[in-house]
Amino acid sequence: MSVLLETSLGDIVIDLEVETCPKTCQNFLKLCKVYYYNLNAFFNVSKDFLAQTGDPSATGTGGESIWSLIASQQGKHAPRYFSPEFVPRLKHREKGTVSMAVAPHVDEGNKGGCGSQFFITLGDNIDYLDGKHAVFGRVVEGLDALDKINEVFVDQEGRPLKDIRIRHIEILDDPFEDPEGLVVPESLPTRPPDNSTRIAEDEDPLATLPEEEAEQARRKKAAAASALTLEMVGDLPFANVRPPENVLFVCKLNPVTRDEDLELIFSRFGTIMSCQVICDKKTGDSLQYAFIEFDKREDAEQAYFKMQNVLVDDRRIWVDFSQSVARLNTNWSNDVKMGPRQSRGGRGRGGVGGFGGRDDLEATRRYREGTMEAGGGYGMVFDVPDERSRHRHSRSPRHDRSGDRVRRSRSPRSRRDRERDGGRNREREGRRSRSRDHSRRSEEKDRYGRRR
Predict the structure, then answer these.
(1) Of 357, 391, 406, which residue constitutes the final position of a domain?
(2) Quick one: what percent of the chain has pLDDT higher than 90?
């Protein structure tokens, strides 16, 4: 009676002593039948000594017999271990001996015994294990796999640095009847039962990617790092932002092409949410590229395939999907249309303010322009005064470009203003005359005193 262990380092065939150790072999075969050992790790490997497995937790303290497993599934209680079957003629003499690990007696409630853990010897004449652990089989094929297991690197606790796992166990012959209540799972387990942080059994730590794949991986990491940096400085709303799939980028436009022209041409593919020809912020001239936002992604795809290299205003345009994410960021955006159809401070269809979407700066600019046009004196200290404000606030006489003095024009004053100004002038002249008289009398007194 044999079973086939398919491990990550090779296949191992084990012959079982079903006649000599019936209970031990029945426990082992039924655990194999319910996929209990699938994806279990060899958690203890000692060079030229043994390789131990059969514990789902990979700690050396777990595992139970098939009868305990059935009882726990039914909500009943049963002993975790069963009594080991020691046969004097079955000894640990040869490499490849398969033996059940016997748990020690801890207290009266835990008498110890055999559960699910077993090991395979990796050396000959290990006789000091006789009578301590129950032998129930031996390896007949797959000794080269045992040699590979014997050469693995392990840590200070004997755990391989790279996982060695039982991928599957195939039962070649089973002479025992199933215990009452045994339920075979419908599918094989796909995840290891333990939380291993070691190198995976199907992973090669020394493997290198082809040059193209390695370069692609490096570019992907560099792009992720750049996106994180742009998020930190505020240029992106979040690092994993993706461009919209319903926005097209159209370039190589004729400078005379306007929003209405593109919207009319592309509207036959579906509903257009916005169509903007990007213009220079200062001159208002077209930059010869535009963004067209469709209501549906399918409409954008159809327009992409149909409008490539189409002649528009004697120019063959180029259409591609937009890679810009500026419209997704509501705080800062440079996607501003500033052309003849939109004033410098206004908002176009689907656009943002003239200061990159900053409403506070836009309101400040409007306030400044309004006060300056109304004749106010509002201004920033770092602003360079324009010609009008410099002439208005200057006290020196104005000059024209040729350098000649320009006579200021005065607006006509009312009669009340003239009378008020006249009174002020007469009062000022009276103070001056009294001051002159007082000075003259003081001089005369001084001269009279000197004569005497």
Answers:
(1) 357
(2) 52
